[in-house]
Amino acid sequence: MLVAGNWKMFKGTRETVAFFQAFEPPGGVEIVVCPPFTSLLAAVGRGIPVYAQSVHWAAEGAFTGEVSAAMLVELGVEGAIVGHSERRQYFGETDETVRLRCEAALEAGLAVIACVGETEAERGAKETEAVLQRQVAAIPSHERLVIAYEPVWAIGTGRTATPELAREAHELIKGLHDTRVLYGGSVKPENAAELMAQPGVDGALVGGASLEPASFAAICRAAAA
To answer: What digits encode the pLDDT tens for the residues 139-160?
Structure first.
């Protein structure tokens, strides 16, 4: 099981140090933490692999606001999230740019958590399968890459896919791409065990519940169990 904590735009350097001082990771589970760019250096070297929340496809150049894979490697960062639904929704991420970012990160030696998932409108229109097929087709195969299924309608809303819906989506993705698949979408201590007990669910991409050491540790313990 792999549990990744996506801190989004929370926690500066002082809060990052305080988190690691309080967090007690359980054994028997693979854990990574994904702080914002300014807190990466404060997180590196504290016993848990650190991933960035995005990475650019170019090695260098006139790309204001972006960070290259080589820059992350130089910091000691071990991986990156690519194509999170918030990147797609707010910053114009497309299947093509997801592919480019994945390839650049993998070529540089980083691990990748590539995100896919349908919106509420797409699920309501019975387009979930077509959306996942399209998004997964853009993702390269690699031993350092895992996919995170994050139903967009469940992110930050408190709503969670039922275990049955999660299982169906994970089975579909695994039929398209031979890799581990994480579930992401309002994962919290109260539902983590049931979600991660489903066949085909290989861990979790955790948002808000990863910000507090105790709740994140509880989710990690559920994965270990």
So the answer is: 999 999 999 999 887 776 667 7
Q: What percent of the chain has pLDDT over 70?
A: 98
Q: How far is Cα 14 from Cα 16, in angstroms, rounded to an integer?
A: 5
Residue 213 corresponds to which tokens in the numbers above? 């050491």
Rounded Cα distance, 64 and 110, in Å:
22
Unique residue bearing structure tokens 């819906």:
165
- For the domain made up of 2-224, the CATH class stated in words is alpha beta
Measured distance CA(33)–CA(220) in Å, rounded = 12
Q: Where in the chain are the domains?
A: 2-224
Residues 101 and 39: their CA atoms lie apart, in Å, by: 21
Question: What b/e string do you get for 119-145 counting C-beta neighbours within 10 Å, with b at 16 or more?
Answer: beebbeeeebeebbeebbebbeebeeb
Distance CA 173, CA 145 (A): 14
Cα 142 to Cα 146: distance, rounded to the nearest angstrom? 8
Catalytic choice (93, 118, 122, 150): 150
Residue 142 known to be catalytic: no
The pLDDT tens digits of the residues spanning 51-77 come to 999 999 999 999 999 999 999 999 999
Strand order, beta sheet including 111-116: 30-34, 2-6, 203-206, 181-184, 145-149, 111-116, 79-82, 51-52
Residue 84 among the catalytic residues: yes
Q: What is the CA radius of gyration of the chain?
A: 16
Which of 84, 122, 170, 177 is an active site residue?
Answer: 84
